[in-house]
UniProtKB/TrEMBL annotation, chain A:
The keyword Ribonucleoprotein does not apply. It comes from Candidatus Amesbacteria bacterium RIFOXYB1_FULL_44_23. Keywords: Membrane, Transmembrane, Transmembrane helix. The keyword Membrane applies. The chain crosses the membrane at residues 12-28, 40-62, 74-92, 112-134, 141-162, 182-200, 212-234, 246-264. This is Uncharacterized protein.
From TrEMBL, chain B:
This is Uncharacterized protein. It comes from the Bacteria.
Length: 273, 95
């Protein structure tokens, strides 16, 4: 890991930025400020920088893996689209905060990006699962049972945690759609990620094993960030720059590092004998 | 006894399948196998040496990437060509 950071400028850049922003986040929270300009500035910097960078690096990596014409290329492309969707959402929110001086609206144009991330990540993880040999494992009955239990369990927990006792306001159909779509959509993609890990761990090997596992960790991190946001927001505890935003920053960073590593792998495969 | 012509057919379907998973890297990895040359369009496959060993080296080259998953993908890909090649000519590691 240390060698990877030393040998790759992009990785060093992302890790260096991560350390700087972490120090900034600690200082911001020690100051006790909530909802001020410093919070909004923090939100704008962390939210847009890594997601855009990771999205672009991912698209370059996807091309090296064959782009649309290959399973890995398409998977990497959808993960990059997911990061770029987050970039769009974060940019819109930052504009509301910094330019219009208002708190985040819900639903807003930003939700096009945040909600758009869900199908992109879902397709990305399904393609990764296919490349990881999940199809081979699915031949056994035990695996087929897992394939049903994982999503159903997570969907149930998400429903119980975020939607139990939900009061429907049919004058706001978009809000209802998003209130249900976010937790259930996120539960779906993280369950596919966990299922992929569970079903592929006995057959997936080689140099791709650690890289795909790393991406699965990034999915779980994104899910934790999304779930924490939903919980904080539902209880009126969210403000820009709190733990939720730091979790988002961690998840964007992990996904970006995973995509950089895939780019490096394609390059080293070309060079090696 | 695996003939060179049959080995060429097997190489072609294996690389074709791998290309669907890892893109152009599949052809590049195949060309790193000693005694094997394959064009980007997969139309020309040249084998010089023991066809069985070259096939084994090709599968091993892909195994480096995804482990057993790659081997299973190679096995899956040749199923379509099994009717063209006598069963006894197919190397054990591909069955």
């Amino acid at each position: 890991m240390v060698a990877t950071i030393k040998n790759n400028k992009l990785t060093s850049l992302v890790i260096g930025f991560f350390v700087l922003v972490t120090v900034w986040w600690i200082a911001l929270n020690l100051s006790g400020e909530q909802g001020g300009f410093d919070n909004y500035l923090f939100g704008a910097v962390y939210g847009t920088t890594v997601s855009l960078f990771g999205g672009i690096v991912g698209l370059v990596a996807a091309k090296q893996w064959g782009g649309w014409k290959s399973l890995m290329g398409r998977a990497i492309m959808f993960l990059s689209f997911g990061l770029l969707a987050e970039f769009f959402g974060q940019t819109v929110n930052s504009c509301y905060n910094l330019i219009l001086g208002v708190e985040i609206l819900y639903p807003s144009l930003g939700d096009v990006g945040f909600f758009g991330n869900i199908p992109f990540y879902l397709i990305g993880i399904i393609l990764l699962a296919m490349a990881s040999g999940v199809k081979i494992s699915l031949k056994s009955f035990y695996s087929q049972i897992q394939a049903v239990i994982f999503p159903v369990t997570l969907l149930f927990f998400s429903y119980m945690l975020f939607l139990r006792g939900y009061e429907f306001d049919w004058s706001k159909p978009l809000t209802i759609f998003l209130d249900f779509g976010y937790p259930l959509g996120q539960a779906l993609y993280v369950s596919v990620a966990l299922l992929t890990y569970s079903l592929s761990r006995k057959v997936l090997g080689g140099i791709m094993r650690n890289q795909i596992t790393f991406l699965l960790v990034a999915f779980v991190a994104q899910y934790l960030a999304d779930s924490t946001f939903l919980f904080y927001n539902a209880n009126g505890m969210y403000y820009v720059g709190n733990i939720v935003d730091y979790l988002y920053f961690v998840s964007y960073t992990l996904m970006t590092l995973g995509l950089i590593k895939l780019r490096m792998t394609a390059q080293s495969l070309r060079r090696s004998n | 006894m695996l003939t060179t012509a049959n080995a060429q057919s097997l190489v072609k379907v294996i690389v074709e399948q791998q290309r669907m998973i890892i893109g152009p890297l599949a052809v590049e990895q195949a060309n790193k196998v000693d005694g094997l040359t394959i064009t980007v369009d997969l139309n020309e496959v040249t084998i010089s040496g023991d066809p069985k060993k070259i096939l084994m080296d090709l599968v091993d080259q892909y195994r480096r990437l995804f482990g057993q998953v790659s081997v299973e993908a190679c096995k899956e890909s040749i199923k379509k060509t099994l009717h063209q090649i006598p069963r006894q000519d197919i190397p054990d590691f591909l069955v």
